Amino acid sequence: MPRPITLIITFLSLTISLLAQTDHCVVNNYNTLVTISGKKIIHQVEIELQINNGVGNKYTEINIPYSGNNKINNIEAHIETINGEIVRELKRKNITYSNAYLNSTFHSDFKVATFSLVHNRYPYILKYSYEQEFDNFISLINWDPFIEKDLRVKKASLTAELPKNLKTRNIETHVKSAQTSHTETSDIYKWEVSNASFPEREYYGPSLSTLVPNVEIVPFDFFYGIKGNSETWLSYGNWIHLLSQGLDELTESEKIKVHELCDNLSSDKEKIKALYNYMQQNTRYINVSLELGGLLPHPASYVCNNKYGDCKALSNYMMAMLKEVGINSLCADVYAGYNPVKINSQYPSQQFNHVILCVPQEKDSIWLECTSSSAPINYLGAFTQNRQVLLIEKDKSRLVTTPTLLPHQCAENYYSQLKVNSQGNADIEVRAQLQGQAFDYFESFNDGISKDKHADILDEIGFLRGVDIQAIEFDRPNKDSALITLDINASIPNLAEKMGNKLLIKPIKRFGIKLEKPEKRTQEVIINYPILKTDSICIQLPQNITKVAGLRETSFKTAHGKYHRKYWINGNQLIVKREVQIYAAKYALEQYQGFYDFTRKINGNENQKILVSY
Amino acid sequence: MKSKVTILLLMVVSICHAIEHERKFGLLTPEELALKACEFEKDAPAVVLFDKAEATFREEEGEGFVISMKRHVRIKIFDEAGFDQSEIEIRLAINGDSREKIRDIKAISYNHKNNQLTKTPLEKSQIFTEKLNKYWYQKKFALPEIQEGTIIEYTYTLTSPFITHFTDWEFQTDIPTLYSEFKAAMIPFYSYRYRLQGTNRLDHKKNYEKNGIERSFNGVRYNDMVYEFGLKNIPSFKDESFISSRNDYILKLDFQLVEINHPSGYSKKFMDTWPSLANELLDSDSFGKYLKKAEKWADKNANHFIDLPEEKRYSEILNYVKNNYQWNEYNGKLAQHSLKDLNKKLSGNIANLNLLAIGIMRSNGLNAEPIIISTRNHGKVSDQFPYSDLFNYVLILSESEGKYRLLDATLANCPNALIPSRCINGKGFIVKEDSESWININTSHPSTQVTAIDYSIDVDNYEMVGSCQTKCTGYIALDKRSSYVVNPQKFEEGLERYGKEEDSELEVKHLEEKEKPLTYSYDFKESIDIIDEQIIISPFANFAPKNNPFKQEKRALPIDLVNKKGYQYIAAITIPKGYKIDVLPMARKMESDNVEFNFKAQAVGTNKIQIVALYKYKKSSYSAKSYNELKQFMNTVTDKMNSKIVLVKEDLLSQK
After folding, report:
1. Among A481, A513, A487, A342, which Cα is nearest to A408's?
2. Do A497 and B140 touch (CB under 8 A)?
3. Statement to judge: residues B419 and B468 lie in one domain
4. Would you say residue B78 lies in a domain?
5. Nearest-CA neighbor of A64 among A107, A17, A30, A105?
6. Which of A20, A444, A609 sits opposite B488 (nearest CB)?
7. Is residue B133 in a domain?
8. Which of A497, B169, B273, B411 has the fewest CB atoms below 10 angstroms from its CB?
9. Tens digit of pLDDT for each residue in B114-137?
10. Are B218 and B281 part of one and the same domain?
């Protein structure tokens, strides 16, 4: 008799868990067609969303982003039942057009068309379609199958109907090659993706955009402001060069200023430094992007007058000042980021998001980050180090690699003094000497962020966990070096807990790397720049120490890095020295276990509490 | 003698000067140039030297009177952290075909270096217009040549056709202000009342009739009456956690139109009494008339609840609206769409849905009245100022056998007995003909959470292993329900941070039954310390609060927790074989009018420990004075709840 009941129960719980996993909303179809009409590129997009319940209704607010230069036409939408009966249609007057906000952009002509259509019988279908025209383009389309990160896509397709013999390069990433067919006048390519979900971020994994299925169709000949060609990096570079030609004229008063600064200096190095300092002190980053503003810099005179600009404008302005004193420099297009997308060197195209300046020297070029008012000269930092960039030079444009941050340039050294009182509360003084990414993060702190916010931000990023910060002092002993010191005074409530004649001390400043368990990991590991942290911690207790338990001296080294810890007892003081180093490297999925074990071993050591006997 | 007189005169003049702050666009004073820091806020990255505006009424062709406000601001930037003060955004309102407009924007940056003053004007081409949504657009510009020590100055004239919304004046901003002044030149045809918030003192106040040529309108000759309001040395506004809204605390001046008396004979009382505000709403197409239509519509389409028992009828009607209509995220005391449009779109603003619910209730023989309120992020209302602008939301007041209840039909996951927490904000005005009655918008329902854990110790793996069950009610349940429904996976991941085992199934009870407590349970694992054969455990594993949420050194604003809250933790621990208790935390009890804490740990039998902890906030809001008590209280709570249990090997203990 019990059997059937068990069966029913299993059956019920199965349906419940299935229901729980159902998407609130799913993309049934997402079809894009690219065609060329005269000099215009046309994208026709059709999307079908299925809304399964009330929570899914939030996806019925549709936002279609577009640029003010590119017309968006024929926005149509309707709701239909699952059986195809049309319930409601979108009226033109219910579409709102407004400005779109982009991170770090002050003003741009990016816009967004917004509308919303809902229904209350689930599931239902929302279908919408629109057309976009492009006069200026480098690629015909840069496509991926997702419209929202959290919406699963059942079917997506990209179709390109291109005139016969149009030379293009179709860059396919994580998608099956196109099915091709031909008519008398055109070549037709079709890519399809089914049942795709947006990849999820894994710790120290690659940038997500490299994991997304993607198709980019790059024509050899394109038009963006002017005609361009992307057969080779050289021809592509020539187009960038031509686009910004003639924009390097300084205003007369600025020329006078440049000469005032440089004419008494003899070496190029001194001149570069004087002008870089001048630019850093007098300009700041504001991005106003209109019309071709995504790629066409504002002229140097714009920066002369406003004393602000974006990366292109500021680099172009710096280049113009250097030119005024006879020093040649080159803009370098780069993909900036702490976890960058690697440039695909075989396919010349717009793969960059930032511009820096390179001043060629006889030996080793000088690199200038022109958007920072506090970066040292010739310092690129974790944001732009060690990657291929495109140097723009007439008939000589080429890919080169930026300098690599070495472990000693990334070192973070901490010296901590702790005084633990009889209640177990502690006062801590930390002096940190920071380089590498920590330097990049903090270098502009002193000037750029008002003092009363420093403690909150340190709290937020978890710089020192579980402490009440009382005072913070940043200091950069030398503006030209990539080193910042940080002094913190803080108190740590309940650092230690008294248990009889023993004291249990929580780990202080533990270093930990969080990673997925190997059975859950699906992505490779990328450590973009080396990690090197050293600590000297002196803990002063109210009484003399007779014995310490839980703290072991450890030292190990693997192919991934090193770990080293020692301690001494000196009367009432416990002194711990620790060093962790993790090399910059990439580990394929097969090598993950090894790296995982290495970090587990470090975490195990770092999480250990200390039991002190008096 | 003569010299004495001069001195007196000079003094008088200089006093006037200090107060008046007559300053011309383009002319800086030596003091402004020399200023290195704000005296009363030394760390401030920038200071508003002055912010002055003058509002007047102008006649505009075809529009009648419009308000024209000329504003003049000067700011000194001391260091880089103040650079963003040079990025100016001016928000402008849109209402159908009319909108606020702005003209004559002028801005200059001044830099004083090597005894030379350079002025860089803002180029017209660098002023941008951006549309934000249906109701707002903005003008935006960034001043050129910003450095440490730069003084920026800008002026513009804003014209507004919205006579009822005579501009609010905020004296305070996120940097300190040396002088802020608002001047309103009133005309006889409109009467306003003003309200000063955050202070009862003004450094400068003056009323006078404007001299000069008389103005005339429809044959009436008049002079403007000018009102001046000035404040000096205003500290920057600092946001604090646990407050209802910045709007409630910022130093500001509000104006509200009381009546219009046109010389033509047209006259309209806007807001002199509460009963008239009620009548006006009841007469409005988007409120009273909408409500009537909703009732009629329900007579035909939604009167099938009539046979249910009364309690159930309320509840089923709320469910009906919640399930069939979608809230479009807009607040509003007035219905945004007509009833016809609402029934086409099936989505509308707060007033659309709650007024509809009232209509259906009435049609089904229930008592229900609309109450207008202001939501938490919109600021508090005061019963002394019948300002319709201060309200942005409608709630439902039901009455059954003399018992009143507040209801809301806009949030699907919200139990019918609760109103969304955004509504809990001071008083609500009951909209009833010819009457003024108020009701406190609060909730006596405490929200509770009970966490029960039961675990044993796996000595070999340095782990505690067991199960956890959480049961919650009220707003805690509402929050958890919503986050579970939106993304169950994320919800589970959140629990994994407390120790939930990844492979353990999460069992959720009463997810759909929003009226019942939400219960969920799962298995957890947490590492423990074993040092020299002594087991050291945090009895509540990762579940107890670790950090005190009250972190501030000083507190200026009241602490608003929205509702009463209580948290209970129960741990049952099985002692591993061969071990005995060495250290058990002492019991602790504390209670005041504000809070309560009770902690007790005890051995049960030979191999079990039971610990029960309970802490409660007995009030939903506290005055700033109580901040210290709350801080101390939570220090004790976190301290005690994280104190350790030590178990030792039996033979080790006998050695002692």
Report:
1. A481
2. no
3. no
4. yes
5. A30
6. A20
7. yes
8. B273
9. 889 999 999 998 999 988 888 889
10. no
Give the pLDDT of residue A45.
Answer: 97
pTM: 0.79
Phi/psi region, residue B615 (left: phi>0; alpha: psi -120 to 50; beta: rest), is beta
pLDDT, residue A22, reads 60
| pLDDT per 10-residue tile (average), chain A, 614 residues | 34 36 85 94 96 87 87 93 92 88 78 89 94 93 92 96 93 95 94 94 92 95 93 95 92 95 94 96 87 84 93 96 96 93 92 94 93 91 94 96 93 94 90 92 80 81 80 88 92 82 83 88 94 94 90 93 95 94 95 95 86 86
Q: How far is CA A50 from CA A82, B484, B486, in A?
A: 8, 21, 16
Residue A307: list chain B partners with CB under 8 A. 120, 144-147
pLDDT in the model for residue A4: 34
Task: For residues B305 and B412, state if they share a domain.
Answer: yes
For the CA atoms of chain B, what is the radius of gyration?
A: 32
Residues of chain B with pLDDT under 50: 1-20, 656
Q: List the single residue in A with minimal CA-CA distance to B147.
A: A282
- How many independent structural domains does chain B possess? 3
pLDDT computed for residue A447 by the predictor: 72
Which pLDDT value is given to residue B509?
92
Nearest Cβ partner of B536 from A452, A466, A504? Answer: A504
Question: What pLDDT is stored for residue B652 in this prediction?
Answer: 58
* pLDDT for res B21: 54
Give residue B319's domain range.
274-440
Domain boundary (B416, B440, B464) is at B440
Chain A residues in contact with B347 (beta carbon < 8 A) = 116, 118
Q: CB A549 to CB B128 under 8 A?
A: no
> Tokens representing A431?
């002096």
Nearest CA in chain B to A119: B346
Residues B372 and B495 in one domain: no
Q: How distant is the Cα of B188 from the closest Cα of chain A, in angstroms?
A: 40
The CB-side HSE value for B219 (13 A sphere, CA atoms) comes to 4
Of the candidates B1, B61, B74, B65, the one whose C-alpha atom is nearest the C-alpha of residue B31 is B74
Other C-beta atoms within 10 Å of A376: how many? Answer: 19
Domain ranges of chain A: 24-219, 233-401, 408-613
Q: What is the DSSP letter of A298?
A: P
CB-based contact B532 A282, cutoff 8 Å = no
Kindly determine whether residue B531 and residue A550, on different chains, have CB atoms separated by under 8 Å.
yes
Q: Do B81 and A451 make contact, defined as CB atoms within 8 angstroms?
A: yes
* Cβ contact, residue pair A288, B128, below 8 Å: yes
Phi–psi pair at B496, nearest 5 degrees = -60, -30
Q: Is residue A187 classed as helix, strand or coil in its secondary structure? A: strand
CATH class of A24-219: mainly beta
- CB nearest B532 (choices: A150, A468, A611): A611
CA distance A109 to chain B (A): 9
pLDDT for residue A348: 93
Whether residues B80 and B162 share a domain: the answer is: yes
Residues of A in contact with B502 (CB under 8 A): 517, 520
How far does A502 lie from chain B, in Å, by closest CA? 11
Given this model, what pLDDT does residue A302 score?
94
Using the beta-carbon criterion (under 8 Å), do B529 and A54 form an inter-chain contact? no
The CATH number of residue B365's host domain is: 3.10.620.30
* Domain annotation covers residue B464: yes
B141 domain residue, yes or no: yes
Contact between B531 and A57 using a beta-carbon 8 Å cutoff: no
B59 in the same domain as B170: yes
| Residues in B touching A520 (Cβ below 8 Å) | 502
- The angle that helices B350-363 and B310-324 make with each other, rounded to 10 degrees, is 140
Using an 8 Å Cβ cutoff, are A595 and A500 in contact? no
Domain match, B50 and B103 both: yes
Contacts of A6 (CB under 8 A, 6+ apart): none
Nearest CB neighbour to B133, from listed A98, A116, A466? A98
Pick one of 2.140.10.10, 3.40.50.2000, 3.10.620.30, 3.40.50.80 as the CATH number of A233-401.
Answer: 3.10.620.30
Interface of A with B in 178-237 (CB under 8 A): none
